[in-house]
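Board notes (copied after class):
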Amino acid sequence: MAILAKKIQPSKTQAIEEAKKVLSEYKDFIFVEYRGLTVEQITKLRHSLREKNTQFKVFKNNFARIAFDEMKNGSVSQYLSGPTAIAMIKEDANESAKVLFDFVKDAPSLVVKGAWVENELYDAEKIEAFAKLPGKKQLIAMIMSAINGPARKLAGTLQAYVEKLEKEGPAAAAPKAEEAAPAPAAEAPAAEAAPAPAAE
């Protein structure tokens, strides 16, 4: 008796393609267990993540596994079991991770399982440590502050000098003529004319 290959139903194929289409629009992912959260808490978390350009969505685990596998991210399948939601991130994963771990303080039912960040698999411990680091925007702000500090000091010095000149008047802007220009050198006395030789 021939064994027939099991076919995926068209509806499931469509659901997998839709999941893949959505997931492919994002570069980083954080996987969380949301068991025990209220609808109100989930809504609040979604809003907080949306402010970081991150979407919080629940997929059917089997469909998400296949979609990630086709996207060459099959290693994340270990986090796709039980009631799992995915924080899908477009920009700074660090900022989104901070939101999630801050939320855990008030809602311990939320469990961060792991993540896929910058093409690397993070376990729960690593993503928590990552959340404590400064984000890209924060680092840029720190660098700009360090660069602008000396520039602001120089600008303040120049401004103070300009204000001083304005108070003292135009005479202070340039040295007096007699002080600015060196005195002309004294002319050497003209040489006396040599006496003409006596006629013989």
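Comment from the instructor: The radius of gyration is 38 Å. The beta strands are 28-33, 54-57, 84-89, 111-117, 120-123.
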